[in-house]
Amino acid sequence: MTEFFKNVPVIKYEGPESTNPFAFKYYDAEKVVAGKKMKEHLPFAMAWWHNLGANGVDMFGVGTADKSFGATPGTMEHAKAKVDAGVEFMKKLGIEYYCFHDVDLVPEADDINETNRRLDEISDYILEKTKGTNIKCLWGTANMFGNPRFMNGAGSTSSADVYCFAAAQVKKALDITVKLGGRGYVFWGGREGYETLLNTDVKFEQENIANLMHLAVDYGRSIGFKGDFYIEPKPKEPMKHQYDFDAATAIGFLRQYGLDKDFKMNIEANHATLAGHTFQHELRISAINGMLGSIDANQGDMLLGWDTDEFPYDVYGATYAMMEVLKAGGLTGGFNFDAKNRRPSNTPEDMFYAFILGMDTFALGLEKAAALIEDGRLEENIKKRYESFNSEIGQKIRNHSASLEELAAHACELKKPELPVSGRQEYLQSVVNSVLFK
């Protein structure tokens, strides 16, 4: 079989003192942290679309990276070459999972029946090439935003025929996800939203989206899919008003339409930024609602107002994220690098540098998060901040046994309350620094 990355060796852990660009500095797959091996805490996944497809094209210029892998793009030969390159890439990095959209795997044909035939062919090829390896599918999804028919969305479309095409794509993507052993299935509503209320029936569209999701759940369970369905919140881009704005909005939608028993959140760091939240916030909101499922591990640029999908390098952000994951008891999904090289980083070697960066960042974040939890000062401060609720009146508030009149009477007896205890934010930030840079 052709070797696509001849200049890249198998990537091994060499420690933080290493200057070898093709070595992990912090990601040691077998190292035990907080009772589990790193690779168990951090089931990393390769995004098929970015890593094997994105060539650096943007609104202002053509691609800068060659992702042909020796074949003609738009052909089944190219689809198979991407499989070969992807398997080699994952083997050299020790990555055991991948994620895909249907049209990442094969070129879409004019006839959906031909597209489905191609998906059957390529999924057979993936199973053949990954047989005897640890490589498997983390989750699959359908691209229901790229084709012009989805200009008004998929579940939110104004066309019944387009709605049927969306259903057909979801059905086939679920078939392939189950065939490849996927642990999850994602709905990313890239165009599930609207531009103006002048031509939009919001209630009608949301009911149709929920119906499509119910149909997907029913079909998935009927073919043996036992994993979680995910919603991946995103506030804008490409639609001005997207229905899955953030985790709280998506969770409310799921509960309103009775989907909360089958769905969890697939949280992306860059989407949190676009929603005006931190990555940590979106993870916390998902976790406290019992809906933290999987993570798209990337980051955005705070100076840019769009989805830049950069490889994560912010250790503070990764540490805060891993604190949420550890406190939640881990993920049902994994950490998909929904990230792409910067346009000038256009060599095959750059693909590996990017993944080494991302994997090392989250490995270091995992270690520091575990250390902060073990240190205990952050949690101790939280308990002290709310300890007034351990008083008699506080306990009545917590167990819902006090009436409004009783609470008001307590306030009148006090005449004037003391100020709440200090939040000690700056001290706690210094605690974080002391652990991170120990």
Short description:
This protein is of the alpha/beta class and 438 residues long.
Can you put this structure into words, describing what you see?
Belongs to the xylose isomerase family. It catalyses: alpha-D-xylose = alpha-D-xylulofuranose. InterPro entries: Xyl_isomerase-like_sf, Xylose_isom_bac, Xylose_isomerase. It is found in: Cytoplasm. One of its GO terms (cellular component) is cytoplasm. The two termini are 46 Å apart. This protein folds into 2 domains: 28-375, TIM Barrel (Alpha-Beta Barrel); 378-436, no CATH class. It contains 16 helices and 14 strands. 40% of the residues are buried. It is globular and about 80 Å long. Helix 5 (112-130) runs parallel beside helix 6. A hairpin with a 2-residue loop joins strand 3 and strand 4 (36-37). It is of the alpha/beta class and 438 residues long. The model has no long low-confidence stretch (mean pLDDT 97). The strands form 4 sheets. Strands 5-6-7-8-10-12-13-14 form an 8-stranded parallel beta barrel, surrounded by 4 helices. Strands 1-2 form a two-stranded parallel sheet.
